[in-house]
Amino acid sequence: MRLLQTLYKFINEKPDYIILTVDENTYTYSDIKKNMDKWKLVLERCGIKKRYKVVVYINEIMDFVGIYFALCELDCIMIPIDVSTHPDVITSVLYSSNAHAVISSQELVLNDIKERIPVLLEYTCYCTGKGEIDTTDDIMQMLYTSGTTGLPKCVMYSKENMANNILVLGEALGLSEKDVIYTPISLMLPAALNTVLMPALLSGTRIFVSKSTIPGKVLSNVITQKVTVFFAVPFYYKLMADSELCTENTWKNVRLCLTSSSYLSEEDFLSFYKKSVQGLHSIYCSSEAGSIAYNDATDIASLRKYVGRPLHGCEISLIDENTEGEGEIVVKGDMISSKYYRNEELNNKVFYDGWIKTGDIGAINETGYLEIKGRLTETINIAGHLVNPLEVEQVIMKNEAVEDAVAYKYQNYAGNDMLGVKVVMKQGHSLQERDIIKCCETALPNYKVPKKVLFVSSIDTGRYGKKKRSV
């Protein structure tokens, strides 16, 4: 297994190299090996066998890493669930995945558990007693998507899929022993696990972890830890840009500011750039396709506009293109997931002929850079015309009196779908509904012009700043 081989290379060649700092505690590759061996023994004593599926729901990063590689050595399947997930969700995950066990740092109320085994003082292993092995021998991880509707869906990644995701991204980012990487995002979230933690750990890049997510403290850590690579979701860059500590001097040691997960507006990009003199480099990922593209551009215009070019071993194309060269982004390559677990309806919808439909709308320029235009599922059908709400929002946001905006669908008295927008005004400015409609009329065709404008104090968002398009 390539991931284990890479880890052992560092363990054997640099056992005393400090690879992980958690606040004031430091850990070497030798410490990781000891922790991995400890957890391997614990898991075996709990009855965990080859090809068993294990849900991991813990809050300590060092133990998380130990379990990760112990499960690799035991040839088991890891199902990582971030501790911010409500415990009730674990019940759904446990039974929808047919998992054999749960390792948890929290007390859980679970039905039909055969055995509850306390381990290492602060953890519990919940064993289901199931013996069925229903995945192929190559599966390494089962990842649950966050999903905006319904229960989360589970995708499966093989050992080679995961190795390609992690090692190729590390190479693309140029991660090395000269770097210190830091993120305020939980490293146990699947997105950060495979884009930050593992690429860094398996390239010799020092990882700094702090439990504080307060922007001021995070910015202070960037300075004191001499961070060279920083990762955050777009919403967090917006929070940092509002801090007085966000200055060019704060970021003087940083060579890469990375972002992923959701759309980054031009205003937020430029706001952070003006304060930090750092352009944000996008990593384009999807739950089903893994790490797809990386923006290695050096000019600000390209960094702002594109999410990057395909990573090594990845191919990107568009289907159902319109006259403007926009279409649904499809992906194939060495890093994509195998399929959804026990969900043939979704498998038939998303996977076809070796390709994965991402559900994202995009365009590719002449040099191969990919631009995200929106989500297919968020497209609004207005009298047979498909409207990308992101395009409408971008037009409205150009008005200097607008702080934020979100487009949404509503029904008129006749039951027809109509386009509306919610707008947040900047302090000290005044706007009327007609002002918003007029700016849209000058830039958009009539079917993309909103028929209703609501002025609100704020826009509802999800956990990572994604706007909610509800009435």
Automatic annotation (TrEMBL):
The keyword Coiled coil does not apply. InterPro entries: AMP-bd_C, AMP-bd_C_sf, AMP-binding_CS, AMP-dep_synth/lig_dom, ANL_N_sf. The keyword Isomerase does not apply. GO terms for biological process: fatty acid metabolic process. Residues 391-466 form the AMP-binding enzyme C-terminal domain. Keywords: Ligase. Gene3D superfamilies: 3.30.300.30, N-terminal domain of ligase-like (3.40.50.12780). GO terms for molecular function: medium-chain fatty acid-CoA ligase activity. It comes from the Bacteria. Belongs to the ATP-dependent AMP-binding enzyme family. This is Long-chain fatty acid--CoA ligase. It comes from Lacrimispora algidixylanolytica. The lineage of its organism: Bacteria, Bacillati, Bacillota, Clostridia, Lachnospirales.
